[in-house]
Specification:
Cytochrome p450, alpha+beta, single chain, binds 2-acetamido-2-deoxy-beta-D-glucopyranose, 19 helices
Length: about 525
């Protein structure tokens, strides 16, 4: 941190020397009425107030300045909101003024300036969102790809059973992202994409690139906040972004090219009167390539191109893998630390599923306590700690007038831990979401309850919500149905007396600071039940 401060200071001086006149005249021109703000330093604004976990720094500031305050990061104005009422005001009442998302230099480059998660609100974004939801994430598509997920769940459970048998530990911070990566990869690129051994290698390579990309997305790149800093790039982001982009592009290009080749071969076979390949389940990539060939549809109007296909694949990989895996990790860690909750969850599984088979996705709706556990996990560890938007027009909200291009942060994480919104906010207490609980009992994850926005809200709610809410409860359910979990006592990982440490690491998705490495202990002979 000391180094970062020094860096900021140096940047401040340099920009001051170069641009002081312009900067001053600029601040005098602004006529807007912004919420209260802490004392700002010249040029760097409020950067010096931010620690590595930004949602925590914002929470601390909200204790001093209230549920709405403004900051200036470099030359970028920001407002931070920390109450459900204001969250609703900005995300619902004034949704269309704050409908675009902030794109950092890293996100732009790595997603070919065409990200679904981050693109400005407009025809292109609407088009790819519709395609992604219809062909990949709608209930129909999610069911269509069911067998891919079932196979991956079995694969993981078998691995765990084998580890249990030989008393070996398992690194869940490695296996859960791998599972999610394989699932989303096969849903997008087809089953055979991971069948051959060279493909396994490629999947592994892709996983590492995805990891690096999400890491870069999560870091604060000072270049995003001031034109002069961008030229200097003292943190060396430019090169890392470029390297990651090139690696990603090489992988995705290969996948798309091979598929195009295959399609040509299949077409030749067809015209030669050959048997048509049985199209089992059409994956996302095939559907996208079909659209590209179709010269009449909406895809033409928005200028849908081959680069956009690569962008979507890259984007969906980075948006899905980490978030889902991290949610599962947090849920398991909380369960390990709360044995009474774990016991109660198992009773529910025994009652609903019995002991003749393993929890499946279709059990989800019949397991309200498990659902409550997942919600409670999302409350304390929201996959997206802050809903981040940028204003697309000047906007009057209450007594304030907020200029165009102001970044809005809704601090989900802090709202989820505020005693004004939640009883015993720091306790892990899933019962709060059950029938007969307090006013939070019927609350769902769909962005209608502004004290609880794990997937965001409104038009820009995470489109993967239904898939996630199918995967997470069933897999976490299966993992506690089949295994007891013993934590390795470790100073390095901070696990003392069988309790898992719950520190966070900086990132776009609040990952765990320490890897979750545990011994699975089989509760029954799983290897007999799982089909080989
Ligand atoms: C998720 O499911 C709900 C209800 O089943 C549905 O109304 C909603 O449109 C779905 N969302 C997406 C993004 O598919
Ligand atoms: C667990 O897996 C992660 C991701 O592959 C790796 O970075 C980490 O070093 C592993 N941790 C342990 C303790 O093996």
């Amino acid at each position: 941190m000391a180094l970062e401060l020094l860096l900021l200071f140096a940047l401040g001086i340099i920009s001051l020397l170069l641009f002081s006149r312009r900067a001053l005249s600029h601040t005098h021109r602004v006529q807007h009425l912004l919420p209260p703000s802490p004392f700002a330093l010249p040029i760097i604004g409020h950067f010096h107030l931010l620690g590595p976990l930004i949602h925590r720094s914002f929470q601390a500031l909200s204790f001093r300045f209230g549920p709405i305050f403004s900051l200036r990061l470099g030359s970028v104005p920001c407002i931070v909101v920390t109450s459900p009422k204001l969250a609703k005001e900005f995300l619902k009442t004034h949704e269309l003024s704050f409908v675009s998302r902030v794109q950092s230099a890293a996100i732009k480059r790595i997603t070919y300036y065409s990200s679904l998660a981050f693109s400005p609100y407009g025809p292109y974004w609407k088009f790819i969102k519709k395609v992604t939801v219809n062909e990949l994430l709608s209930s129909r598509s999610v069911s269509k790809f069911h067998s891919i997920r079932a196979d991956e769940y079995s694969r993981l459970l078998r691995l765990l059973a084998e580890r249990a048998k030989s008393c070996l530990a398992v690194n869940l911070s490695e296996e859960l992202p791998r599972l999610c990566h394989n699932i989303i990869g096969q849903m997008m690129l087809g089953k055979y994409s991971t069948a051959a051994s060279s493909s396994t290698e490629r999947a592994e390579e892709a996983r590492l690139v995805v990891r690096e990309a999400t890491r870069i997305f999560g870091e604060l790149n000072l270049c995003d906040f001031n034109m002069v800093w961008k030229k200097l790039d003292l943190q060396g982001f430019g090169k890392r972004i470029e390297d990651t982009h090139l690696k990603f592009d090489e992988l995705v290009e290969k996948v798309v090219m091979e598929r195009e080749q295959l399609r040509i071969e299949n077409n030749v076979q067809k015209t030669n009167g050959g048997e048509e390949k049985d199209e089992e389940v059409k994956d996302f990539l095939s559907i996208l390539l079909d659209m590209l060939e179709d010269e009449s549809g909406e895809s033409v109007e928005v200028g849908f191109s081959r680069v956009h296909i690569k962008a979507l694949i890259t984007d969906l990989f980075t948006a899905s893998t980490d978030t889902t895996a991290i949610a599962m990790e947090w849920a398991l860690a909380e369960l390990i630390n709360h044995p009474a909750v774990l016991e109660k969850a198992r009773e529910e599984i025994d009652r609903v599923v019995g002991n003749g088979r393993i929890v499946e996705e279709s059990d989800g709706p019949n397991l309200p306590y498990i659902q409550a556990i997942i919600k409670e996990t999302f409350r304390l560890h929201p996959p997206v700690p802050m809903v981040t938007r940028i204003s697309v027009e000047d906007c009057k909200v209450g007594e304030y007038v907020i200029p165009t291009n102001t970044i809005l942060f809704v601090n989900n994480w802090a709202i989820g831990r505020d005693s004004k919104n939640w009883e015993k906010p720091l306790d892990f207490w899933p019962e709060r979401f059950l029938e007969g609980g307090d006013q939070t009992s019927g609350m769902d994850v769909r962005g209608q309850h502004f004290q609880f926005l794990p997937f965001g809200s409104g038009r820009r709610i995470c489109p993967g919500i239904n898939l996630t809410m199918k995967m997470v409860p069933s897999l976490v359910g299966a993992m506690i149905q089949c295994f007891d979990w013993k934590v390795i006592p470790s100073k390095k990982m901070n696990n003392i007396d069988g309790v898992v440490e719950m520190d966070e690491r900086p990132g776009l998705t609040t990952p765990r600071a320490h890897d979750l490495v545990c011994f699975p202990v089989a509760r029954f002979n799983l290897l007999n039940i799982l089909k080989p």
